[in-house]
Amino acid sequence: MVSAPKPGPAHPLPGAIGLSHIGAYDWEAADGVCGGSPHLHLVCTEAYVVTGGRGAVQTLSPDGYRDIPLEAGSLAWFTPGTVHRMVQGGDLRVTVLMENSGLPEAGDAVFTFPPEVLADPDAYAAAASLPPGTGPEAEAAARRRRDLAVEGYLGLREALVAGDDGPYREFQRAAARLVRDKVPTWRALWRAGALATAERTGARLDALADGEPAYLAGATAHEAAPARRGGFGMCGRRDAYALPGTTLPHRAE
Prior knowledge:
Helix content: 25-40%
Mean pLDDT: 91
Protein name: Cupin
Strand content: 25-35%
Largest sheet: 7 strands, antiparallel
Organism: Streptomyces dubilierae
Shape: globular
InterPro entries: RmlC-like_jellyroll (IPR014710), RmlC_Cupin_sf (IPR011051)
Order of helices and strands: EEEEEEEHHHHHEE
């Protein structure tokens, strides 16, 4: 019996990945560095494809502290639990590829706010939220959010460089506690998105093995343009797409 691909929401991008374009913030932080808000993802791997300019991504992980240079053509990616901070060095422009499209927009990211903010879900939500739009009020709130994340990040980095990974490990645990209640929603998004995409691939392989690739009758092409330009993302000004079957990207902004 031929297995037919399971119906599901269309994902124009291969593998149900997320896609956005980032222009790194040029706001100077407390340490004199211009860039974005340090944070980590708990489920998703993220990749930077540099399309212009120069800069760096600073990371904290069990490997320690790293400062990875970025220039046009560079590719860098980081797995869940890696704290990352995009640093502006001059017109840095990055295309971001995100595993499990929809999950980051549904909350799979935690800022490196100081411990007292992380310990209070209401305080965290207030610090992480931005007013709607892209005007001066939203910009000021995004900058305050960035500065608070840098404050916590610098403490984590100082301890890690000194050989003490305790604060970094505790930050990971605090982040996991913050998002625990969101897991059922994330699981539903994953099942409808990345998992369903993989299962459809399996069904296509079954059909090919049986010599009856009826699913090819549904072949088509897709196109999309950014649904929102210049939003205030975690790392910088963000052009994002509203792709079928995923959470609208501006909801987290």
